[in-house]
Amino acid sequence: MAQRQLFLAAYDVREPKRLQRALHVLRDYTCGGQKSVFECYLTPSEKQRLKRRVLSVLDETEDYFLMVPLRQSAPVKAVGTASAPVDASFLYIG
Questions:
Q1: Residue 47 sits in a domain of what CATH number?
Q2: Measured between alpha carbons, how far is residue 60 from residues 6, 12, 25, 53, 63 in Å?
């Protein structure tokens, strides 16, 4: 089984319909996040599939998408109040 890696995925989409489509794509891959920044634990094939799906929604001349790999060995520090995942069937153990 392929090893999952933690990524932060973020977007800036200028048009409301594309914004909603991008949000729906990202929600298929996220374990948490807020506004337009999401945490995603992805296998290499999931990462490629996510990138393909997001690029099919965005206008590359107007919109922006970023995926940043995070080291799992680095401590995570969060500031502020987090919201519970929207998908109640999701379980995170970490």
A1: 3.30.70.240
A2: 24, 11, 16, 13, 5
Range of the structural domain that residue 40 is part of: 5-70
For residue 72, what are its two tokens?
């799992």
Asked if residue 49 belongs to a domain, the reply is: yes
In a domain, 91, yes or no: no
pLDDT band at 89, cuts 50/70/90?
Answer: low
The residue type found at 76 is: V
User: Residue 41 domain-assigned?
Assistant: yes
Cα 13 to Cα 54: distance, rounded to the nearest angstrom: 11
Strands 5-12 and 37-42, how do they pair? antiparallel
What single letter denotes the amino acid at residue 46? E
What total of structural domains would you count in the chain?
A: 1
Q: In the block, which residue shows the tokens 């992805």?
A: 42
pTM: 0.70
Residue closest to 37 by CA, chosen among 64, 11, 16: 11
